[in-house]
Design brief:
single chain, 173 residues, mainly beta, 1 helix
Length: 173
């Protein structure tokens, strides 16, 4: 077992072609290179008011998802999802309308953000693909966990149980 020392407390981990990405509690995202087991980049997340991130006033923790063209970081306290360009190791997009707290990469590469019973599809850059689906049919007040399904859909964990949403339902408006 290899221990990799991080500059802070990890809250979420995502893995993709550009490496292992760790969202820290103090407003940083660290890029770890698996071959060397070293932190090779640190990306500072701006706070919700655009000022420097501070531990005592910053956004609460969120999730992280890695695709071929981006590292997506949710910030539920400010109702945003930010995209990091892995080629430049910097935040390039701030999706203010994407109020997701949980992020999942589906089989087709779309990142799905969840908030309460809503699903929101995010594209490769600053576009919101939609649909903004409110899944009232789940008979619950919130989605608590998500995972990609092999059929292109999603598995959704809720207080009432586990639901499978197929790919076709995700694409409906």
């Amino acid at each position: 077992m290899q221990v990799i020392r991080l500059p802070g407390y990890p809250q979420a981990v995502g893995i993709g072609p550009s490496g292992v990405w760790v969202r820290g509690a103090e407003g940083s995202v660290w890029r770890v290179e698996p071959a060397s087991n070293r932190v090779v980049a640190t990306v500072r997340l701006p706070s919700s008011n655009g000022q420097s991130y501070r531990v005592d006033t910053g956004d609460p923790g969120g999730d992280i998802a890695v695709t071929n063209n981006g590292v997506w970081v949710s910030n539920p306290g400010s109702a945003t999802v930010r995209r990091i360009d892995p080629r430049r190791n910097q935040v390039t997009d701030d999706l203010g309308e994407a109020d997701g707290s949980d992020l999942t990469v589906a089989a087709d590469g779309v990142v799905w953000a969840t908030s309460d019973t809503r699903l929101l599809g995010l594209g490769g850059g600053s576009e919101v693909l939609g649909p903004r689906r409110n899944l009232h049919e789940l008979d619950t007040d919130r989605i608590t966990a998500t995972a990609a399904a092999r059929d292109g859909g999603l598995w959704l964990g809720t207080p009432q149980g586990l639901f499978h949403i197929n790919r076709n339902l995700l694409r409906e408006g």
